[in-house]
Amino acid sequence: MDEFILSTQGKAVISSCARTLLMKQSSGSVDKICDFFKLSDGTKEFLLKARNW
What we know:
Elements: H1 2-5, H2 8-16, H3 30-37, H4 41-49
């Protein structure tokens, strides 16, 4: 995900999507993702603690 939110082209791709599915994220990238999508602290915790199926 870092590759997308750090590049102009990636931001354009994500912005043009009607829906975005976020799954479990590493602790190193979750802050950038939450900033990009303007997500709440609760959502941040969810992304960090999500289980692998």
